[in-house]
Design a protein that fits this description.
Elements lengths: L15 H10 L5 H8 L1 H8 L4 H6 L4 H17 L17
Length: 95
C-alpha cells in the first residue's frame, strides 16, 4: 500500500499552521503509517463481510470499503476537528 493519497481532514476551521501540525502528529500525509499504527489492514479483513442490504447491491471491493470506513472512523477519533459538523458540544448543567 504505497503511494496512497494523504488522508483528508475535510473542511475545518483550523488555522493552516494547526492543520499542518495535526497532519504531522497523526501521520495524515503518510497513510501507510497511519494504517499500520491503527491496524487498519487487519481490522478491515475481519470487517469486510457485507450486510444483507449491502450484499444485495454488491460491492466491487468489500475490503477496500471496510478500510475506508475504518480510516474515517480512526481519523475522526484521533482528530475530532476533522469533522467540525459532527463534534458534540459539551455544556455544563445550569441546575
Amino acid at each position: 500500500m504505497t503511494n496512497q493519497e494523504p488522508l483528508d481532514l475535510g473542511a475545518t476551521e483550523l488555522p493552516a499552521e494547526e492543520e499542518a501540525r495535526l497532519r504531522r502528529e497523526h501521520d495524515l500525509d503518510r497513510p501507510e503509517v497511519f494504517d499500520r499504527r491503527n491496524g487498519v489492514e487487519e481490522r478491515a479483513r475481519t470487517r469486510a463481510a457485507l450486510l444483507p442490504e449491502e450484499a444485495e447491491s454488491g460491492s466491487a471491493d468489500p475490503q477496500a470499503q471496510a478500510r475506508e470506513v475504518l480510516r474515517d472512523s480512526d481519523l475522526r477519533t484521533e482528530v475530532p476537528e476533522s469533522a467540525p459538523d459532527t463534534v458534540f458540544e459539551r455544556r455544563e448543567s445550569s441546575d
